[in-house]
Structures are given as structure tokens and as C-alpha cells.
Amino acid sequence: MTKADIISEISTKTGIEKVDVQETVEAFFKVIKTSMIGGENVYVRGFGSFVVKKRAQKTARNISKNTAIIIPEHFVPSFKPAKVFVDKVKSNTKKISVEA
């Protein structure tokens, strides 16, 4: 499912114009991005948490040149789903058959 699909589905379920739904969805993502860039975590009860994780400094190897590289500590965005959400997905995926 893409962002366009989400916008379409919200529009049909609520009766709100697609343009208005698109602006709302874009604003939602923008708020999450700016909050996380500022170091804040975003918690959505029943859905999950958008958290900023710290990665410690580490030493890596460049195997082609056989040299050590130091990767400095940095922060990465992460999503942790809520337990309720995980439980619903687990219980529902048993009904979905995966065809290879």
C-alpha cells in the first residue's frame, strides 16, 4: 500500500476531499519528521512509537584496502509498534495465505 492508496482509502471512508486528506497526511509526516530531527520521540497510543535511536561509535573494516574505519556515533530513526498492534497483526496473518 502506498501513500496515495492510504489517501484514497481515507477519502472514501470519511467523505473528505482527497486534496484535504493529502494535506493532512503530509502535515502528519512533517510533524513526525521535524520532531524526530529535533530529538523528540513521537508516541501514538495503540499504533506505535517513532523513536530516535543512538548508534555508538564503532570500528569497521574496509576489506578492499585492509584498513580500519571509525564510524562515529550517530542517531537513526526507528519505529516500534505497540503491543496491541503487533498482537492484531500476528492473529490476522494466520488467515492470510502466502503464495510463492
Q: Which tags fit this structure?
A:
Integration host factor subunit beta; 3 helices; elongated; three-stranded antiparallel sheet; HU Protein, Chain A; 43% helix; single chain; 100 residues; two-stranded antiparallel ribbon; alpha+beta
**CATH fold field value:** HU Protein, Chain A
Separation of the first and last Cα atoms: 19 Å
Q: Which CATH top level class fits?
A: Few Secondary Structures
Mind summarizing the main beta sheet? 3 strands, antiparallel
Overall mean pLDDT: 91
Helices, by number, come to 3
The name of the CATH architecture is: Irregular
Organism: Pedobacter frigidisoli
Pfam families: Bac_DNA_binding
Family: Belongs to the bacterial histone-like protein family.
Protein name: Integration host factor subunit beta
Q: How does this structure look, described?
A:
The chain is an alpha+beta fold and 100 residues long. It has one domain: IHF-like DNA-binding proteins (HU Protein, Chain A), CATH 4.10.520.10. The chain contains three helices and five strands, in the order H-H-E-E-E-E-E-H. The strands form two sheets. The chain has a three-stranded antiparallel beta sheet with strand order 1-2-5. A hairpin with a 4-residue loop joins strand 3 and strand 4. The longest helix is centred in the N-terminal third of the chain and has 20 residues. It is elongated, with a radius of gyration of 20 Å. 0% of the residues are buried.
